[in-house]
Structures are given as structure tokens and as C-alpha cells.
Design a protein that fits this description.
Layout (H helix, E strand, L loop, with lengths): L1 H22 L1 E6 L3 E6 L21 E3 L3 E2 L2 E6 L5 H12 L15 E5 L2 H13 L7 H7 E5 L5 H6 L9 E4 L5 E4 L2 E5 L1 H4 L8 H15 L4 E6 L19 E5 L4 H10 L1
Parallel strand pairs: 5-11, 5-12, 6-7, 6-10, 10-11
Antiparallel strand pairs: 1-2, 3-4, 8-9
């Protein structure tokens, strides 16, 4: 109770200072206009009046503690194993495999891939090692492979409207139901989107911004190739802009890929 009163008192004091700062005036003398009073513009770095101890909402995850819901880029050199790492993660999101990473919220996944046969081989290997925990019908419902075709940004922006019936019901602890939006994976940007120059920051930025706006609450994961010449500074890749998260796979962490390969 005492802490609450102190917080409220401090909030009122700060608010009072902000009000005074915003209403202060300054005396100006001009040869042309003479002497007059000019309102002082509030400083752009004034302290926030929001209570620091107010309740905050935890971020929503696609994969608990690993992938946040929103626009995420997964990048690495060509042939390094991005699909081999990401595809099982997405199957865990769909709740169809036994996997070290878990997803508290189960979602349907639409995995657009440039190499659908590679994706099927990965799934077949997991099935061979008894890692798939659902039957074929449930697998097809929760995890759908889509062959990649390069389409315009306008056509890609229309895609979320086709997914209105693919929100998965999740029962919450309080007994309510949360309809989780599906996840869309573009593996890779090069083979799914018609962008004239992937090295043009302005063009890519506009495309990603348009997709973020169109997908809104639907998590979007884009996979991109990082040229070997820029692997030392992958964060500068043009498709890294305006996203909620980044995951970069490099040879420095190649041992993780070997572990995944050993599993399936």
C-alpha cells in the first residue's frame, strides 16, 4: 500500500513538472517585431508519465522463447541447412512432432518451399525415426507444404485473406478459447516474391513493409540467402530490415545442424 502511494505521488510530481515545462514561455526581442513573449516548445526527451510498475503483457511466441509472433527473418549461406533446421521447428509449432523446442500455442503452418522434395525427405526421415506424433490426416491439416512460385507483392499481400478459415482453436487455462492465426513461411524470398533487386534496400524495405501490413497478426517467416562475401556481417543484408526478429545460421554454429542431421 505504501509503495503504491509513493508511486502515485511521484507520478503526480513528474506530471506537474511536464505541465510546467510545456507551458513555460520565453521573452524574445526582435528588431522588426519589438519585444514579445513566445511559448517554449516542450523538450523531446521529457520523462514519461507512465507508471513504471504497471502491468505489462508478455510477448506472444510462435515457438516458445525462440521465435516471436510477427515478421521474422531466417538467414544463412546457400546450402548451409536453413530448411533442415527451420522445417522441424515449424512442425513443432504445428504440434505434429516430438521436438526439443515447444509451442504453447498450436498453429497451422503453411510452408512455401523452393524444394518440396527436400522438405518431403526431411519429413520422411522424421517419420522413419518415429518423431511424428499424429496420423496422416492430422499432419496434412496442421502442416501444409506449398511449392514456391514467384508472385507479385500485390498477390502475396492478398494471401492472408485466404487463411481466414485456418485459425486453430487453443483452450486457455481460464477455460476460454484462443483462435491462433496460422504461420506462413517463405523459403526462400528469392523464389517466392517478385522483387527486381534483392540488394536494393529501398525496394526490399517497401516490399517487407507492405507484407507486414497485409499479414497483420499472422506470423510471417522469410528465409533469405546471405552471399558468402557478406557472411561476416549478415545483419546488413537488405531483407533484414523492418522485421520483429532475426535468426542467422552461420558456419560458426554448424554443429547445431549436425545434431539435427544426426536426429533424422
Amino acid at each position: 500500500m505504501l509503495i503504491s502511494l509513493i508511486v502515485k505521488l511521484l507520478t503526480l510530481i513528474v506530471a506537474d513538472k511536464v505541465t510546467k515545462a510545456s507551458t513555460e514561455s520565453m521573452h524574445v526581442t526582435s528588431p522588426a517585431l519589438g519585444s514579445y513573449t513566445k511559448a517554449r516548445k516542450p523538450h523531446g526527451w521529457l520523462p514519461s508519465v507512465e507508471p513504471l510498475l504497471r502491468s505489462v503483457e508478455a510477448p506472444e511466441f510462435v515457438l516458445d522463447g525462440v521465435l516471436a509472433a510477427g515478421a521474422v527473418v531466417f538467414a544463412g549461406e546457400r546450402g548451409l541447412g536453413k530448411t533442415s533446421v527451420l522445417l522441424p521447428m515449424m512442425m513443432a509449432v504445428a504440434g505434429v512432432i516430438d521436438y526439443p523446442f515447444k509451442a504453447s500455442i498450436r498453429r497451422r503452418v503453411f510452408y512455401v518451399t523452393e524444394d518440396i522434395e527436400q522438405a518431403r525427405r526431411i519429413i520422411a526421415a522424421m517419420h522413419k525415426h518415429d518423431l511424428i506424433t499424429v496420423d496422416e490426416q492430422e499432419l496434412q491439416k496442421m502442416f501444409q507444404l506449398c511449392p514456391a512460385h514467384r508472385i507479385s507483392i500485390d498477390e502475396a499481400a492478398f494471401y492472408p485473406k485466404m487463411l481466414v478459415g485456418d485459425y486453430e482453436s487453443n483452450e486457455c487455462e481460464d477455460g476460454s478459447t484462443y483462435k491462433a492465426p496460422p504461420v506462413v513461411v517463405l523459403d526462400t524470398v528469392n523464389t517466392t516474391l517478385q522483387i527486381d533487386n534483392l540488394n536494393d534496400n529501398s525496394e526490399v524495405s517497401q516490399a517487407i513493409s507492405r507484407l507486414r501490413e497485409a499479414f497483420d497478426t499472422i506470423p510471417l517467416i522469410t528465409v533469405g540467402h546471405v552471399p558468402k562475401a557478406s557472411r561476416g556481417d549478415a545483419k546488413r543484408a537488405s531483407f533484414m530490415v523492418q522485421v520483429h526478429g532475426r535468426m542467422i545460421l552461420s558456419r560458426r554454429y554448424i554443429s547445431f545442424r549436425r545434431v539435427v542431421s544426426d536426429i533424422w
